[in-house]
Design brief:
239 residues; mainly alpha; 10 helices; 0% strand; globular
Length: 239
Amino acid sequence: MTKPKFWLRLLLGILVVALAVALQRFNLQALLQNALLWVKSLGTTGVIAFILLYNLATVLFIPGSLLTLGGGALYGLLWGSVYVIIAATLGATVAFLIGRYLARGWVTRQIQNHPKFQVIDCAVAKAGFKIVLLTRLSPVFPFNLLNYAFGVTCISFKNYMLGSLGMIPSTVLYVYIGALAGDIATLKMPQDMSPQAQMLQWFVKIIGFLATVAVTVYVNQIAKAVLKQSVAPNSGASR
């Protein structure tokens, strides 16, 4: 069992390094737009290619904003939302399982540099579903890193999947923005979009801000409760 895990970790490391090099040498936005144009050229079978492309981007830490917009441009609001949610969920699942079973040590080292995630780990032990739901709504916690980070926490797979439904509101809004554009070749990253699209983004930001406040307050309350419980037995013992 050790050797297969070693080679899988090595392969994952090579893929990450290759991705970093590729991103330095090429224009990410242009690459994703070309990939979306290729998906469009496939016709009905392009749906499968789109989902696989989205999965790959999620696992390799590639921002999914442009792909989400592309889902709207390719398939419209309804089916674009369905396909993107399916793709994002599958990608999040794969990353979670990699974090839990293949790269647990590496992911743990990464989140040690992010104090927010260390606090979340403590909170997840008490209220996993709510924590995942709120962090999915909040833009402060990066989607791709969260997928791996939750894999090394004690959250159950069921609660992780249910909590991930929190990504639906922002996903639908970004798909809607892409549907408004209607043309992959003219899609731009969020900061370069039209005033109408930027208004929708502000709506997403408001939801995200409220979720950030909620998760911060909630995690702090849980952390204080955990600290109080850990101190209480020691106080009793010292007497």
